[in-house]
Predict the structure.
Amino acid sequence: MLDKSGTRIVATHVGALPRPPWYNFSFNGMDFRRALMQESARTQYEDAVKVVLKDQELAEMDIVTDGGMRYDQLVDAGGWQNDVASRLSGIAWTGSSSSDRINPSMPPIVVEEILQRGIRGKVTEKLGPGTLNFSEFFKLTQSKTAKRVKFTVPDCVVTRRSLSNIGVYKDEDEMLFDIARIYNEQLKELVMAGCTAIQLDTPLQPLYRLGDKPRPEEWKVLIDAFNREVQGVNAQIWMHMCWGRPMGQVGSPTGEITDIARAFPYIAECKAQVLQLESASTKGVNLDKELSAWREYCSDKDLVVGVVNHRTTVVEPIVQGVEIIQKALKYVEPDRLGVSSDCGLGGLPRRIAYYKMKAISSAAKQARSQLA
């Protein structure tokens, strides 16, 4: 059962929400507790978390998040991708450019605004947890709401892509597994703090999403890394799979959103209980292929499907969300189904993000009434 309260067709969203315009504090990797000793920082951060929680409650989300208020406001929602890397110990931020990740077919806006100007942290010694403190961020958020809080964080593979190994580790895989070890410790502390839902963003990335044709041994490394980071973590583990949102663009070189059906045999090997899919951006056209693969390979995992697109300011009509839900219900029972945004809503104007969440909950309610 996706939600222990018994709710059918659970309404939630991926995680990130727009920052209030007055919230200009940046952690810059600072320890959470030390940062909040500053009166202005504490007031801004706590008030921002309260604001996004209130918006989610008014929008009738069943499961809420901290809205990514712990992420610094960087270009391309880069605060999300760099948050964990910026907090790890053993890194100097005088690293190499990200330009070696450029694919000639990528949209110019992605190349020019992100990859050419971004840097990766240089690993100078064995990595440590530094100032991560996942549990401290969670505890503050949960103390401000009676709703179930889902803690969201980029997967260890995403964090590895923000770092440059210069010989501290024998290879990229050894560094990845060390990052997974640090994650595992942090996720266990989250559970001890009372967290029951943990979402890892874009695991197995970028192989299924960037058009690569990975060898079986490459898949094995990614699956192994995911399973290491969640090993022994007694919480509901969510895998959020999407096609990205750099500068509001599609994160594949061609800008194309196809399906991830070919990844399902590998997803099946990942120790997760919930799988979240991007579906609104294509109005559910890929769902039949993907959910046929889900049914064949990993029907033991509950499903969450996107019913609003995070890349447009058009608020989807409720009927569109209901149609996607009805398509998903051909494959999965309603108490094992959730609805969401395709990805984070943090790049949208606040009012648009709010009404997108209302569209999610309204589609869920209408679908429930049809079941009744």
Observations:
- The mean pLDDT is 90.
- The chain has one domain: 10-72+126-371.
